[in-house]
Specification:
The complex is a heterodimer of chains A (617) and B (322). Chain A is mainly alpha-helical and 617 residues long. Helix content of chain A is 63%, strand content 1%. Chain A has a single domain, classed as Cytochrome c oxidase-like, subunit I domain (Cytochrome C Oxidase, Chain A), CATH 1.20.210. The longest helix of chain A has 37 residues. Helices cover 33% and strands 21% of the residues of chain B. In chain B, a hairpin with a 4-residue loop joins β6 and β7. In chain B, α2 runs antiparallel to α3. Chain B is elongated and about 90 Å long. The relative contact order of chain B is 0.12. Classes of the chains: A mainly alpha (617), B alpha+beta (322). β1 of chain A pairs antiparallel with β15 of chain B.
């Protein structure tokens, strides 16, 4: 009846397809779906997850290319960009040297694309979609149609963000930073409106996804899958979805209000007395009606965008927890404290947004309360780190490629977490706010954290997704270069940031002699960034090649306990499991349990049955 | 123990203490920051170093511990991992200990934050008043002039050059005329956004003449003598954001008085500080065309420019009063 949902080979335990589909009435059961229904307008959570994965990988390169434009200008100021990147920039924006407009556009779109088009769709969209039903023992998401919509709402967002870069040339592109603070964004060219609408649609997609994850996890868990038997990945997706559901509408409102200000002349964010005119003799003034508050936008923006940082890191923490336990062959240390600390991060995450505005003219008293809450949010992250370390303690550690990335995640996330304490300290923040220190911090969290976790996840679940292994020799090479080049790029940023090099400036060397002395450091960062960028081609080659030519994978190559490995073949068919939904008897981390001879004990194995009986059936 | 060995031991101890004390007393022993030019900068640096020590020890501890585990517990044939789900006592320890450190840090810095933001310096009588205007892509500074009142005919103006006397608190009002800018003095560790619609009250107190600033090293290794402190716009404000630099000259009381009178002041380095003007440079029609946006409130206090033909810029202009 249903074909496997991927072009990959149907290896491992192919289940008899009889009796499948009691709870699937109405689905296209007895015929092969056509190409369109299978690959484009698919309602299968696995295909939608893969769609999210592939599109976010494509966008990773667009965002990375934009970052290289920025790094080029900072490493080789006012020199024409060499190589194919230079030709591309010239073809698109008509200049090989990075002027103020191109520079501002590049860092604005780099951040926007990486956040709204890569990290969130990859961690929440791809892994959330692919793993949630498989891990909790459901046949699909609660609302498959809504799920397809949540993917296809990303496309208008992608198209709008792309168009925004070219409408009106470089000077018409969004160039107000990914934060898009008015009045600068209010004054910006037409691209800014497209940007706002693109972000709005990406937000709509997130909300649809969040509703779906929450409903699926609450209502569709397999028999015996209690909340506290769920893998950490599912916990992380669950709590992330609650964050996304509550916070995303706020940035949606902020973007609509900004668009209203820009297009219809409302004044949500524009204070009294700000007057627009183009030529004093022609007197075409439009007076803003006033009454708006510039800082209101910042509150709305960060009320979403601070929780968004946790939306981007929590799924990574969940996946890394699973991978660390698997390859330490040990239960995750402190399962409940790990769950509670995710909850703690999410809860505190809603009351720390003001720390982005310590120097924005906000009342200093208010700054103190946000400082206290921000200090405290370091606590759950510390607890998680100590538990990860304790998971390694007395384990039997296998250094597979996903394990290397998971360890890299822990190591880099510690740096990103600790550097946050500097900025939480309001007096220190006065100096390092808006400098490269914050750029270093965010990249240690979002690249060293989220993206390393995403790499770990791709190497780990690739055999399940496509039924084939990735090439692990290339994988180790990819990890080694990425790890070194990443630190070469971003660690140095801490130092130039403390030295007072402010961010988002195209040519600080010509105007600030104290920054000119930091040019050698910047050149090191740029060269590292170029290496970092090109190394990712290795990864993409590996993904594409392995999809078709990789070594075939068995059902459970890592001897993992959770349901996606123990109860579903690689790749899983439509409907995920055989005729019967697996029954869950224990938590997902019973590695090296004294109850059995082997060092793993599947969640769905009934120990009352004689050993060797097929698990869960 | 022989007296000689004792003496050696004691002198070693003293040497270590002296080294520790000088490290602790020097505000920036590792040269991480731009040269300090105010007492507040030293205090901020001290706090930064405290956090650096706490986080640095944590960082090294975690990474070393992790590498040790990776080495000691790598997979070995026949060795099974320990089956444990956790330990309540250690969870308590590593929850309470970081919490105590974080709460300590939070409380410890509150005093400094209050001094930096919420209160004015004690000897306010000697304070210098200045109003700072930020617009795309220029800083302008307005002094109240001899009558000590802003918005009167004797106000003096200075473009891209802020001159203040050393060891006096500077009380400034920060205004933005078009978009958000940020007034950043790296040498004072001072930063505050200039926000349209808000009049930010800020203060700083330089304790070093800008002429005494240590030479910088250029990227090619040459010594560069700079006789001013940098004023940086730290908030993205448009396509020419990077050019929005200004100079802060910290001078002696005499030089400041001379400069305010409109006399030329020449520093020991040979630099002639640009003289202030009596008229607001923002009046020129050029500025209106150049900067398509302007805060009406900030403009109507000055006389309308000669080209003025009426219109919404000065709807209720009635002379010099606000």
């Amino acid at each position: 009846m249903n074909a496997p949902a991927s072009p990959g080979a149907h290896a491992g335990g192919a289940e008899p397809h009889a009796a499948h589909g009691h709870d699937h009435a109405g689905h296209d059961e007895h015929h092969e779906p056509g190409f369109f229904r299978k690959y484009i307008w698919s309602h299968d959570h696995k295909m939608i997850g893969k769609q999210f994965l592939i599109t976010s990988l494509v966008w990773l390169f667009v965002g990375g290319g934009l970052a290289l434009i920025v790094r080029w200008q900072l490493g080789f100021p006012n020199e024409p960009i060499s190589g194919p990147l230079g030709s591309l920039v010239e073809a698109l924006w008509g200049t090989r040297t990075v002027n103020g407009d191109v520079y501002n556009m590049a860092f604005t779109m780099h951040a926007s694309i990486m956040i709204f088009g890569v990290i969130i769709p990859m961690l929440v969209g791809a892994f959330g979609n692919y793993l949630t039903p498989l891990m909790i023992g459901a046949r699909d998401m609660a609302f498959p149609f809504l799920n397809a919509l949540s993917y296809w709402f990303m496309w208008p967002a992608f198209l709008l963000l792309t168009a925004s870069m070219f409408i009106g040339g470089a000077s018409g592109a969004p160039a107000s930073g990914w934060t898009a603070y008015p009045p600068l964004s209010y004054l910006a060219g037409q691209g800014q409106t497209l940007w706002s609408l693109g972000v709005f649609l990406a937000g709509a997609s997130s909300i649809m996804g969040a509703v779906n994850y929450i409903t699926t996890i609450v209502t569709m868990r397999a028999p015996g899958m209690k909340f506290f038997r769920m893998p950490m990945t599912v916990w992380a997706i669950f709590i992330t979805s609650i964050l996304g559901l509550l916070a995303t509408p706020v940035i949606g409102s902020a973007q609509i209000m900004l668009t209203m200000d820009r297009v219809f002349g409302s004044s949500f964010f524009i204070p009294k007395g700000l007057v627009q005119g183009t030529d004093p003799d022609l007197n075409p003034y439009q007076m803003a009606s006033g009454g708006g508050a510039v800082i209101l936008y910042q509150h709305l923006f960060w009320f979403y965008s601070h929780p968004a940082v946790y939306i981007m890191i929590l799924p990574g923490m969940g996946m890394v927890s699973d991978i660390l336990a698997t390859f330490s062959r040990k239960p995750i240390f402190g399962y409940r404290p790990m769950v509670y600390s995710i909850g703690g991060i999410a809860g505190l995450g809603f009351i720390v947004w003001g720390h982005h505005m310590f120097q924005a003219g906000m009342n200093p008293m208010l700054g103190m309360t946000f400082m206290l809450s921000t200090m405290m949010i370091a606590l759950p992250s510390a607890i998680k780190t100590f538990n990860w370390l304790a998971t390694l303690w007395r384990g039997s550690i296998q250094f597979t490629v996903p394990m290397c990335y998971a360890l890299g995640f822990v190591s880099m996330f510690v740096i990103g977490g600790l550097s946050g304490i500097f900025m939480a300290a309001t007096p220190v923040d006065m100096h390092i706010h808006d400098t490269y220190f914050i750029v270093a911090h965010i990249h240690y969290v979002l690249f060293g954290g989220s993206l390393f976790a995403a790499f770990a996840g791709i190497y780990f679940w690739f055999p399940k997704m496509f039924g084939r292994h990735m090439n692990y020799k290339l994988g180790y090479l990819h990890f080694a270069i990425t790890f070194l080049a990443f630190n070469g790029t971003f660690f140095v940023m801490h130092l130039v940031g403390l030295g007072g090099m402010h961010r988002r400036t195209q040519d600080p060397y010509s105007y600030y002699p104290y920054i000119e002395s930091m040019l050698p450091e910047n050149r090191i960062m740029t060269i590292s960034a170029i290496v970092l960028g090109f190394t990712q081609l290795l990864f993409v080659f590996n993904v594409v090649w392995s999809m078709f030519k990789g070594e075939k994978a068995t059902q459970n190559p890592w001897n993992c306990n959770s349901l996606e490995w123990t109860a579903a073949p690689s790749p899983p068919p439509h409907g995920n499991f055989g005729p019967v939904i697996p029954t869950v008897y224990r938590g997902p981390y019973e590695y090296s349990s004294p109850e059995v001879a082997e060092d793993w004990l599947p969640q769905n194995r009934d120990l009352a049955k004689p050993a060797g009986a097929p698990a869960g059936h | 123990m022989s007296s000689r060995a004792l003496a050696l031991r004691w002198s070693c101890a003293v040497a270590v203490l002296v080294a520790a004390a000088t490290t602790a007393l020097a505000s920036d022993p590792w040269g991480l920051f731009p040269e300090s030019a105010s007492l507040e900068a030293d205090r901020v640096d001290g706090l930064t170093y405290l956090i650096l020590w706490i986080t640095g020890i944590t960082l090294v501890g975690v990474q070393v511990c992790m590498l040790w585990f990776l080495w000691a517990y790598r997979r070995k044939d026949g060795v099974r991992a320990k089956h444990t789900h956790g330990n309540h006592t250690v969870e308590m320890v590593w929850t309470v200990a970081p919490a105590a450190i974080l709460v300590f840090l939070a409380l410890y810095q509150m005093g400094l934050w209050k001094d930096l933001k919420s209160s004015k310096p004690g000897d306010n009588e000697n304070a210098v008043a200045v109003r700072i205007y930020a617009k795309q892509f220029e800083w302008m500074f307005r002094y109240p002039g001899p009558d000590a009142q802003f918005d009167t005919a004797d106000d003096i103006f200075s473009n891209k050059t802020l001159v203040v006397p050393v060891n006096h608190p500077v009380n400034a009002e920060l205004r933005a005329m078009d978009v958000i800018h940020s007034f950043y003095l790296p040498n004072m560790r001072f930063k505050q956004d200039a926000v349209p619609g808000l009049h930010g009250r800020i203060w700083f107190r330089p304790n070093k003449l800008s002429i005494d600033r240590k030479p910088l090293r250029s990227s090619r290794g040459a010594e560069v003598k700079v006789d001013y402190f940098d004023i940086v716009c730290a908030e993205l404000c448009g396509s020419q954001h990077t050019t929005m630099a200004a100079k802060l000259y910290v001078v002696s009381d005499d030089e400041f008085a001379k400069w305010q009178k409109g006399d030329e002041v020449t520093l020991a380095s040979g630099t002639k500080i640009p003289r202030p003007s009596r008229t607001d440079a923002l009046q020129s029609p050029y500025d209106f065309i150049w900067s398509t946006w302007a805060m009406q409130d900030d403009l109507k206090v000055v006389a309308p420019p000669k080209w003025h033909k009426g219109g919404p810029f000065y709807p209720d202009y009635k002379g010099d009063e606000e």
